[in-house]
Amino acid sequence: MISPFAVFPPNYSASSVISDEAAAERVERHFANPHSSPDRPQAERELIRLILSSPLEERRLPDVLRYANIVFFEGLLTPPNLWPLRWRPSSEDSSDIIGTTELRQTRTGRFETRITLSTSILHNAAYDQRLVLSAVLHEAIHAYLFIRRGFAATTDGGHSKGFRRIARLIDRWIGDDGYLQLHCTEAILKKFQTRSKCGWRRDTSTWGAEEHGFTWIRWDYSKRDNNVGHCG
């Protein structure tokens, strides 16, 4: 069994930022090394099983992040670098925002990130589980680059060459002709319309911790119209 925090990473700060190209290369080297973690074989099996499972239970989304962290993201997407995955309450939700990655720098210089998902869009029965999986992994790439690069990762709207390299790597690993469309920085929503072979089981549980007095810089994964959304 893989522990929730198999690798506890250092606290990344402004003094440790690297270039966009270097960040993408680190992910590629990490993925290419099958011995990057003793948990790697099981993490790969569990991640692809969750991605292709039907239906996917909402409570397993943190596991998607956990396994992707081991397989692709060098073990960096754990506390305190990444806060627990959370849903935006319906009362605060926007019809345009699919998902959000937020970045803040603490007084000690450490970078922290937080991923928030849209209730109104991702709980919409018109779309199957591929859309929520795409949103989670898309935002995970942003979170990794924010941790590695800090505010420098906000250039090009966050969709740098490095972002695209990492997205293509994950798409190729998943296969199935671009199943999650991660390489596209704009989500064509009609491609995620419910398939009969796919399910998406949501629940009403809440995740994450209450936070007080935090100032976050936010990038949104938003929907431009009924057919196209762009990731932020």
Structure explained in plain terms:
By secondary structure, this protein is of the alpha/beta class. Helices cover 33% and strands 16% of the residues. The chain has six helices and eight strands, in the order H-H-E-H-E-E-E-H-H-H-E-E-E-E. The strands form two sheets. It has a six-stranded mixed sheet with strand order 2-4-3-7-8-5. Helix 1 runs parallel beside helix 6, helix 3 packs across helix 5 and helix 5 crosses helix 6. The longest helix has 21 residues. It is globular and about 45 Å long. The N terminus and C terminus are likely disordered.
In short:
The chain is 33% helix and 16% strand. The chain has 6 helices and 8 strands, in the order ααβαβββαααββββ.
What topology does this entry show?
Blueprint: H1 20-32, H2 40-52, E1 56-57, H3 61-71, E2 86-88, E3 97-105, E4 111-118, H4 119-122, H5 129-149, H6 161-174, E5 186-188, E6 200-201, E7 217-223, E8 228-230
Parallel strand pairs: 1-6, 2-4
Antiparallel strand pairs: 3-4, 3-7, 5-8, 7-8
